[in-house]
Structure formats: C-alpha cells, structure tokens
Amino acid sequence: MVKFSFFIIMSCAFSKFKYSALGVRLYSNKVLGLFSTTHKRNYAVSTEEPLKKTPLYDFHVENGGKMVPFAGWSMPVQYSSLGVLASHLHTRENASLFDVSHMLQMRLTGRDRVSFLEKLVVADLEELPVDNSILSVFTNENGGIIDDTVICKHNDHIHIVSNAACADKDTTHIRKEINKFQQRGGDVNLKIIDDHALLALQGPKAASVLQELCDKDLSDFMFMTARHLNIKGFDCHVTRSGYTGEDGFEIGVPSPASVHLANLLLKYPSVQLAGLGARDSLRLEAGLCLYGHDLDETTTPVEAGLTWTIGISICLLSYCQVYTF
C-alpha cells in the first residue's frame, strides 16, 4: 500500500512537471533530439530513394517549415513562427493544424469486410455502431503488434488509418490475408486512398473553428465518431479524434483542395501550424504510444497496456480456448 501510494504521488508530481513550461521545454529538446537520431535510426531511408512529399510540401516550405526525413517522407518538424515549446503550449490552449498526409489511408469494401478485418485486429467490429471509430492493433500469429490503427465503420465501407512507417508492411499483410480470404469465397477488397490529404486540427478551439466552415451543426459530433462533411464546398471524411490528448478532428480532404483548406483554417487567429516535434511531445505528454518506440512486433496489447482495445468477443474466445478440457 505504501509503495502504491508513493507511486501515485510521484506520478501526479511528474504529471504536473510535464505541464510546466520547464517540463515542456525539456520534452521539446528531447523531441528534437529524437528526430535527429532515433527517428532516423528506426525509420531509415535509402539515400538512393527520394523522400516522398505530401500535397502540402510547398505550402510548408513557404510557411517556414523546417523539413526533416520521417518514415520516407519530407515532413515539417517545426515552423519558423513557433518553436516546439510554443507550438506545444499553443495546441493545449488554442488550436493547431498538423499535416498528417503521410499516414496510410485505406478503404475496405465488400460484403464480408467486417468479418475479414476482425480476423486481423483485436477489436470487436461487429458490435461497433455505424459511423463510429475505434483504436485497434493488427497482430501477428504470436500476438505481437504489427501496427496500431484507427478504424472507422461506415454503411458501405471501412475507413482505416495506420502509420506511415508501417505502410508497406501493413499493405503487404492485409493483401496477403485478403488473397487467402478470397480463395475461401470471401468478398472483400482493399483500396489505398492516395488522392486525399489528411489534416489534423487539434486543440480546445478546434470545434468552434471547424463549425464556422461547415454547413452542419457539430454540437452532436461525438468523440471517436466519423462523418462525411461539406467544408466550404469540399467533400471531406472527418473523424473527431487525434493524437495529442486534446479535442480535435482529422480531416481527409481531396489533395487538390488541401492547401486551400489549410489557408482557410489559418485565417482564424487561434489556429497555428504545428509540426512533428509538437505532435510527438503532445502525444508523449498524453501517454499515447508511438509504434517503433513503445510498440513493436514483440509487444502484445496486454504488455503495451492496451487491453482496453481488445473486444469482448476476442476475450471470450481466448477464455474458451484456454479453459476447454
């Protein structure tokens, strides 16, 4: 009991430190170091292969983005207008706009899409309501985490977003399983969504800003739900979710319209651009896992503290397998 109480006290003290200016500054320094060393090690890219660019690459450069290699992409780690510390705190108090178009976006269609995907992830997708999202993980035959992913269930398809660093691995794994599933008569198809950018508007003022650009009331747009919204004439796939620990939205927008939408959002004084540096310090402060650092194929969901992502049907199946005599 004494040890447990001490742990709680120290955890609370550390949490307060993280939210202090000094704590965030130290996190910022750590993050910049990560992107100069650790990220290059974990997401090494051959010098013979040019870095990929998101549809907003020129926009980032024009706005003072400091571009760095990340998972095979050239991405802004920060901007000249705001350092990582200032950007981190701005997100906590206002709203920040992140380009996350490097992430892998996929669409599953076909009559058996739900039952197929349930064989690859630990989520209970049959019970997931339509237009709801869920965080889950792809697992290998040993229960190790291949990647973490956000899954959105719609009436006629499933929308999936996973990590850029695992894009090739994820698509290879899914296509391999699709081939086996189709050979058994299953109806499922995969499409890579490569014609849409992905923008993350994060922070306590994100909802009020987005509301002014939408033709629909967002007051009943709940956390971890998804909608197709018309944003100033652009048909967008929007989820109320993010990777910062704040309220916010991830907006899938047609690539040709992405810069225009970004500029519309930046017209609001409460919105500033933010890069990978602030995104990493924000997720770290919120206790969110990063694949390649906190998770890998030797880590199970239980070991990662992600038991809450495991669906009840998976738990019951495992229980029955263990206690079958």
Question: Can you give a write-up of this model?
Answer:
There is one protein chain. 36% of the residues lie in helices and 24% in strands. By secondary structure, the protein is an alpha+beta fold. The chain has a single domain, classed as Probable tRNA modification gtpase trme, domain 1 (Gyrase A, domain 2, 2-Layer Sandwich), CATH 3.30.1360. The chain is globular. The glycine cleavage system catalyzes the degradation of glycine. It is found in: Mitochondrion. It catalyses: N(6)-[(R)-S(8)-aminomethyldihydrolipoyl]-L-lysyl-[protein] + (6S)-5,6,7,8-tetrahydrofolate = N(6)-[(R)-dihydrolipoyl]-L-lysyl-[protein] + (6R)-5,10-methylene-5,6,7,8-tetrahydrofolate + NH4(+). Substrate binds at residue 250.
Strand order of the largest sheet: 10-11-12-9-3-13
Give the SSE order as H and E letters.
Answer: HHHHEEHEEHEEEHEEHEEEHEHH
Mean pLDDT: 87
CATH superfamily: Probable tRNA modification gtpase trme, domain 1
Q: What's the count of strands?
A: 13
- Computed Rg: 20 Å
Q: Any idea how many domains?
A: 1
Outline of this structure?
The protein is α+β, with helices and mostly antiparallel strands. The protein has one domain (56-323): 2-Layer Sandwich (Gyrase A, domain 2), CATH 3.30.1360.120. Helices cover 36% and strands 24% of the residues.
